[in-house]
Specification:
The protein is mostly helical. The chain has 4 helices and no strands. The radius of gyration is 24 Å and the shape is elongated.
């Protein structure tokens, strides 16, 4: 094997709770589910639209902590997309040949 390096895909999996969740993920999930459960106890309405609205916090929390390919979860994906569009995307060359590129012959 010439210059072939094998990096295990699950190198950080042992640092996660149950191999999937961080503490922040569990807090988001538990708060969403508890909020929906409390609303189910408080609101006594049997219509489907109201039930969907009551379960919305739990559904959103579950969606955010769902694992996604190449990312930790949907929340991490949304964070990366937000950071990409809000941060500076001008990359300045600072390599070893920066002087040659800009025409400076100083040595």
């Amino acid at each position: 094997m010439k210059n072939n390096y094998l990096i295990p895909a699950n190198t950080k999996k042992s640092q996660l709770i149950l191999g999937f969740f961080t503490v922040t993920d569990l807090v988001i999930f538990i708060v969403g589910c508890v909020w929906s459960f409390i609303m189910l106890l408080i609101i006594k309405n049997n219509s489907l639209p109201v039930l969907i609205l009551i379960m919305l916090p739990a559904l959103i929390a579950t969606f955010l902590v769902t694992p996604v390919l190449h990312y930790h979860n949907v929340l991490q994906l949304i964070t990366n997309i937000f950071n990409f569009y809000t941060n500076n995307r001008k990359y300045y060359w600072k390599g070893w040949c920066v002087r040659e590129r800009f025409g400076s012959n100083d040595k």
